[in-house]
Amino acid sequence: MTDLLRAEGLSAFYGASQILFDVDLALQEKRTLALLGRNGAGKSTTMKALAGVVPARHGRIFFGGRDITRAPPHTRAQLGLAYVPEDRQVFPEHTVEDNLLIAAKSGPDGRRDWTLPRIWDTFPLLTKLRSRQAGRLSGGEQQLLVIARALMGNPLVLLLDEPSEGLAPIVVATIGKVLRELGASGATILLAEQNMHFCLRIAEEAVVIDKGKVVHRQDTAGLAGNDDIRRRYLAM
Ligand SMILES: Nc1ncnc2c1ncn2[C@@H]1O[C@H](COP(=O)(O)OP(=O)(O)O)[C@@H](O)[C@H]1O
Ligand SMILES: [Mg+2]
């Protein structure tokens, strides 16, 4: 299998403080990889480094075989790397439908698999809300909207930063169902999460980080039964 996205020896800093230490990650095409770790472990910083929002001080990032280590965020997006940050930024004054249409474009390979009709099919909840102002949606609805909006750009890879965070269990279940369906339809996803249980039926494999270092890798099914790692590095 081909690594679609790969980080090698990644380090990142905020000012003088080093946050990531020698992080290696490989995401294969059509797979979902969970990036697990406690609050403050470095998940968001890793996602930002991959998206180009935070510079990599050392190491290399390859996307589709191309070295994107120094590429700015918009170039990475054009190449098909869609980053969905944890803050769920929507265009609050615009309707749900307009938020989606603003992002509509063909993928880097010319594909246009994701169009409005397919979004309505995949996200029935958004269909009902299509005319509502995005600023009036609940947190869970906004999370669904930002995932859907990323898909409208027909990306090759989705970087999702803690989509389940702070949401009610019923909404978390809805988001989980959507991500499982996306994975089954061949999407390639890197899913940063604190919540291991949320990832279990979504990601095949997990990378665990702690204090900015990769400390463990395992298939998610095995990790669920790995009490030692869970106790040491995850909040459960
Ligand atoms: N903008 C920032 N400036 C300085 N330190 C930061 C900044 N953002 C995050 N950090 C620190 O970097 C570490 C990793 O944070 P983060 O990547 O957000 O972790 P996670 O997403 O796993 O909760 C934490 O110690 C956090 O306090
Ligand atoms: Mg985070």
UniProtKB/TrEMBL annotation:
A Pfam family the protein falls into: ABC_tran
PROSITE patterns recorded: ABC_TRANSPORTER_1, ABC_TRANSPORTER_2
Protein family membership: Belongs to the ABC transporter superfamily.
Domain ABC transporter stretches: 5-236
InterPro entries per record: AAA+_ATPase, ABC_transporter-like_ATP-bd, ABC_transporter-like_CS, BCAA_Transport_ATP-bd_LivF, P-loop_NTPase
SUPFAM superfamilies from the UniProt entry: P-loop containing nucleoside triphosphate hydrolases (SSF52540)
Record function comment: Involved in beta-(1-->2)glucan export. Transmembrane domains (TMD) form a pore in the inner membrane and the ATP-binding domain (NBD) is responsible for energy generation.
Membrane-spanning intervals of the chain: none
Protein name: ABC transporter ATP-binding protein
PANTHER family found in the cross-reference section: ABC TRANSPORTER ATP-BINDING PROTEIN, HIGH-AFFINITY BRANCHED-CHAIN AMINO ACID TRANSPORT ATP-BINDING PROTEIN LIVF
Keywords in alphabetical order: Amino-acid transport, ATP-binding, Nucleotide-binding, Transport
